């Protein structure tokens, strides 16, 4: 004697009055736009603190965002410029003090 299991399939249509599920937004474009904004923010923040770390991170994020075709190209280019400016400020301040660390003299 063989036992067979029967299963019922859920209905493929949505119940009346309910909205059909929408497709999620593509995450690739949103990720690259986020990278462009992050590079801008980190580059701007790097002018004040931790420019040795935040400058290169801003440069890399801006480069990746531009290569992937972000819709926020202006932000990515500004992030790239600010990242380079972070390193230029660090080099200038290091040459003035002959040290890697710097601070505002009061």
Q: How widely separated are the two ends?
A: 93 Å
Low-confidence stretches: none
Query: How many H/I helical runs?
Result: 3
For the largest beta-sheet, the strand count, sense and barrel status come to: none
> Could you report the average pLDDT, rounded to the nearest whole number?
78
Q: Radius of gyration in whole Å, from Cα? A: 26 Å
Strand tally is: 0
**Outline, from the CA principal axes?**
elongated
Structural class of the secondary structure composition? mainly alpha
Order of helices and strands: HHH
Helix content: 55-70%
Written overview of the protein:
This protein has about 110 residues and is mainly alpha-helical. It is built from 3 helices and no strands. Helix 1 packs antiparallel against helix 2, helix 1 (about 25-45) runs parallel beside helix 3 (about 75-95) and helix 2 runs antiparallel to helix 3. The model has no long low-confidence stretch (mean pLDDT about 80).
List keywords for this structure.
106 residues, mainly alpha, 58% helix, 3 helices
Task: Please give the structural blueprint.
Elements: H1 27-46, H2 51-67, H3 73-97
How would you summarize what this structure contains?
This protein is mainly α and 106 residues long.
